[in-house]
From TrEMBL:
Residues 1-94 are annotated as: Disordered. Residues 9-38, 45-74, 81-94 have a biased composition (Basic and acidic residues). It comes from the Bacteria. This is Uncharacterized protein.
């Protein structure tokens, strides 16, 4: 009877040990999953930040190009107006 009680106690101890090991493994798995999700979210956020940075850089370059084009057109118009003024001045002198 004592041996049976000891065997039962040992069986219960082993069962409790197996249960706590399984719980620890499940907890470790859950934490690893959470870490993987956090890393994926961080990677996605970094990707979005880089995409936004690239977009704003492209927009800034497009704006600079547009302004340069407008400046070139304004300078061409000013040069044409000056040329016409000089031609009119020469014509009136003639």
């Amino acid at each position: 009877e004592a041996e049976a009680a000891a065997a039962k106690a040992e069986q219960e101890r082993l069962a409790a040990e197996a249960k706590s090991k399984a719980e620890a493994e499940a907890e470790a798995k859950r934490l690893a999953q959470e870490r993987a999700e956090a890393e994926a979210a961080a990677a996605k956020a970094e990707q979005e930040r880089l995409a936004a940075e690239a977009k704003s850089k492209a927009e800034a370059e497009a704006a600079a190009k547009r302004l340069a084009q407008e400046r070139a057109e304004a300078e061409a118009a000013a040069a044409k107006a000056e040329q016409e003024r000089l031609a009119a001045e020469a014509k009136s002198k003639a």
